[in-house]
Amino acid sequence: MKKTFVLLFALAAAAPFSSAQEQAERSLVFLNEVRVPATSVKSQGRSSSCWCFSGISFVESEIIRLNKIGKEADYPALSEAFVINKSLHDRGIRYVRLNGHLRACPGSEGADVLEVIRKYGIVPREVYPGPDFVNDRTVFREMTTSIRGYLKAVVERRDKPLNPQWLDAFDGILAGYLGGFPPESFSEGGKTWTPGQYRDKWKIDCSKYVNIASVTDVPYGETFVLEIMDNWRWTPSLNVSLDDFVGVIDKAIDMGYSVQIAADITQQGNKRDGYATVVEEGAPYTLAFPDEETKTTPALRQALFDAQINTDDHAMHLIGRAYDQFGRKFFVVKDSQGDKGLFHGYCYMSEEYVRRSVLHILVHEDVLNAYREKR
């Protein structure tokens, strides 16, 4: 785990204040920052594949940790397109089996990345780079429309039984938009690898990870399926108290592990420029100081979820922790929007924002076990 000490000053006001002096003073200073090693910031472009980019980033950090990779030049770069292709392949099968009672689009969850790697392995990014959606959302929309239209036609057919070639045709659509069929083998370092062998080379054991959530309508300590559309694999989550939810995240950073998170980023306090704090609707600014952040109770968190105010509209990779000049805790979050914002693709998210707006997390079971032992 890399520990750094930084001073980061940034003007963080989007609306006018009572005076220029007040506006100039509304900035944060971050100290005692700790970060877990992570690969470089990538861009998901104009696609809705944050779940994949954040999940891949999470796995890459796990590879760095598991294999004790010290040099950034040796960090892995895994293929997002491979995961997207295999995930959509599996989703197409489930969509047809459920006669269309499933969302047919590329959105998903971080646990889906692990399931794809478990079933199919993984390949390097350079071997299967996929298309460039960075500057052309039209292509991504066309792919999504094609997927939906084809699967709808399959389930609404009049003939029985189901044409056995439907899946081959569906895979052809995916290959057409994602840069060809995923490779069954490839060469790297003078050796031929299958995707499964490449997964095992990096010591990735996908069974060692756990989803964690915090809701009030399920007893703490029980597992349940969080009812969100992107959880189409119906991956179970362990339900814990809100204090334990944050405690596990802290424990991960303390141990040198990272965390994949799914959060609501549409709240007023998330400026999308590098800050996320709790700001109530109607406030005249979009960055809160400590005494201005409303505390989030489990009941309030549940109410926001039930009212569909809090949704899992964005997945990110939490890699560190820092404190502002008031001693308030922030988590350092790696995004997948490229080199943007005040912190070049990273965001400082207050603990209070995490308590309110992060719906669930993905972490190695070692972290959960160590946290339990501490208690």
Tally the beta strands. 13
Through-space gap between termini: 23 Å
Major beta sheet, specifics? Answer: 11 strands, mixed
Strand proportion, as a percent range, falls in 15-25%
Q: What's the CATH architecture? A: Alpha-Beta Complex
Helix content: 25-40%
Question: What's the CATH first level?
Answer: Alpha Beta
Uncertain spans, ≥5 residues at pLDDT below 50? 1-21
Q: Taking Cα atoms only, what radius of gyration do you get, to the nearest Å?
A: 21 Å
Count the helices. How many? 11
List the helices and strands and how they pair.
Elements: E1 2-3, H1 20-25, E2 31-35, H2 50-66, H3 80-97, H4 110-120, H5 137-155, H6 166-178, E3 186-188, E4 191-193, H7 195-201, E5 209-213, E6 223-225, E7 236-239, H8 242-255, E8 259-263, E9 275-276, H9 298-306, E10 314-323, E11 329-334, E12 346-350, H10 351-357, E13 358-364, H11 365-374
Parallel strand pairs: 5-7, 9-12
Antiparallel strand pairs: 1-2, 2-10, 3-4, 5-13, 6-7, 8-10, 8-13, 10-11, 11-12
Question: What does it look like?
Answer:
- The protein has eleven helices and 13 strands.
- The two termini are 23 Å apart.
- A hairpin with a 2-residue loop joins strand 3 and strand 4 (191-193).
- It has helices spanning 20-25, 50-66, 80-97, 110-120, 137-155, 166-178, 195-201, 242-255, 298-306, 351-357, 365-374, and strands at residues 2-3, 31-35, 186-188, 191-193, 209-213, 223-225, 236-239, 259-263, 275-276, 314-323, 329-334, 346-350, 358-364.
- The protein has one domain (8-374): Cysteine proteinases (Cathepsin B, Chain A).
- It is globular.
- By secondary structure, the chain is an alpha+beta fold.
- The strands form two sheets. Strands 1, 2, 5, 6, 7, 8, 9, 10, 11, 12 and 13 form an eleven-stranded mixed β-sheet that branches. Strands 3-4 form a two-stranded antiparallel sheet.
